[in-house]
Design goal:
The protein is an alpha/beta fold and 341 residues long. The chain has one domain: TIM Barrel. 42% of the residues lie in helices and 16% in strands. The chain contains 13 helices and 10 strands. It has an 8-stranded parallel β-barrel. A two-stranded antiparallel ribbon has the order 7-8. Strand 5, helix 8 and strand 6 form a beta-alpha-beta unit. Helix 6 (137-154) runs parallel beside helix 7 (183-196). The longest helix has 25 residues, at 10-34.
């Protein structure tokens, strides 16, 4: 099954192409007029873990998660509060799986970013329980606010959760099965989380590093999180490597901080797995290597160190574990070095 088929119509392909051209030109202009970046002396790495994706990869998600904590030694995690898992039936909330993840992180003194809302990490981007699909947009929004109330109240006082991430790349258009962005509703979500959280944990709002303007998310955030991808798949083109120098992200982040006053900028999603025309678990290993293998992984780690960001959360840890189970532990062992100290 081609999981991008339903989103890549000609108009969206045109929009993506124009966006790419603009980003590439901006990247070269920044490179030419500002010179090289000021690399961070130390980059603190974390990972995004998705229970849902681990299950789609036919992994035992709990074994995978424990291996991330115990074998890799990861101490920074972005976890996801999936609406269909927490509220599988209307008004009946279960935090069993998420509680377990956060509890295990706490036992190892790891810190957590918790992504909440309807649009959160992993395909199809917007995650909606079956019972809520028949609701209209206003009714869904009402249920999402109720969900956020339950989540924030449930984790009041939990010191392992250091940040709330409200929605995921909410301003990114043309990707995922989602309704159009409602800025007023996004502001309601952020306001509600701020109002309910007695611990006053910072709020992260995220955006695509290559395909989105950063100003809207940064104006709403305490911490702005950018994604960073090097090799992507574009219909009609195939695999495409962004010819963007690392200084592009560094200077763009400095400009956004100056314009918006956002407190911090981080790489919230750093490519660490393949990207192709079909779901990863439906893609042959040799095809996966076209956009991610050991050498490419080393390259993107080196690239991230040159961006000037001091914190980056890798994307793809479930895939590394899957590859390890397939008899190739090279990526897993290479990643382990990031948390060896």
């Amino acid at each position: 099954m081609n999981f991008l088929k339903d989103i890549l119509n000609p108009w969206r392909t045109l929009i993506w192409t124009i966006s790419l051209i603009v980003i590439i030109l901006l990247g070269f202009l920044i490179y030419l007029f500002t010179g090289q970046t000021e690399p961070a002396n130390q980059v603190s790495f974390g990972v995004t873990f998705s229970q849902k994706f681990a299950q789609e990869m036919d992994l035992d998600w709990q074994d995978t998660y424990l291996a991330i904590l115990n074998d890799l030694g990861v101490d920074k995690l972005r976890l996801v509060a999936y609406w269909p898992i927490i509220e599988s039936e209307p008004g009946q909330y279960s935090f069993k799986d998420l509680d377990w993840q956060i509890r295990e992180a706490a036992r190892r003194d790891a810190q957590v970013i918790l992504a909440v809302g309807r649009k959160v990490p992993r395909w199809p981007e917007c995650h909606i329980p079956d019972w809520a699909r028949s609701l209209n947009e206003a009714e869904q929004q009402e249920r999402i606010l109720a969900l956020l109330t339950e989540i924030v109240s449930h984790y009041q006082g939990n010191q392992t959760i250091k940040y709330w991430q409200v929605e995921n790349e909410p301003f990114l258009k043309g990707f995922g099965r989602c309704p159009p962005l409602d800025k007023e509703f996004l502001d309601k979500e952020i306001s509600l989380v701020r109002q309910l959280d007695f611990d006053r944990r910072p709020i992260i709002v995220t955006a695509s590093g290559e395909l989105s303007c950063w100003l809207g998310p940064a104006l709403r955030a305490d911490v702005f999180g950018t994604t960073l991808y090097r090799i992507v798949w574009i219909e009609k083109i195939g695999h495409f490597k962004y010819p963007i120098p690392a200084v592009f992200y560094y200077k763009r982040a400095k400009l956004v901080k100056w314009l918006t006053g956002v407190e911090r900028t981080i790489i919230v999603e750093l490519q660490g797995e393949p990207w192709g025309p079909s779901a990863l678990y439906e893609t042959a290993v040799w095809k996966q290597a076209k956009s991610m293998d050991l050498d490419k992984f080393k390259g993107i780690i080196g690239y991230a160190r040159q961006t000037g960001f001091d914190e980056a959360y890798l994307w793809g840890v479930e895939w590394w574990y899957w590859r390890k189970g397939q008899g190739n532990n090279a990526l897993w062992e290479e990643a382990k070095k990031l948390w060896a100290d």
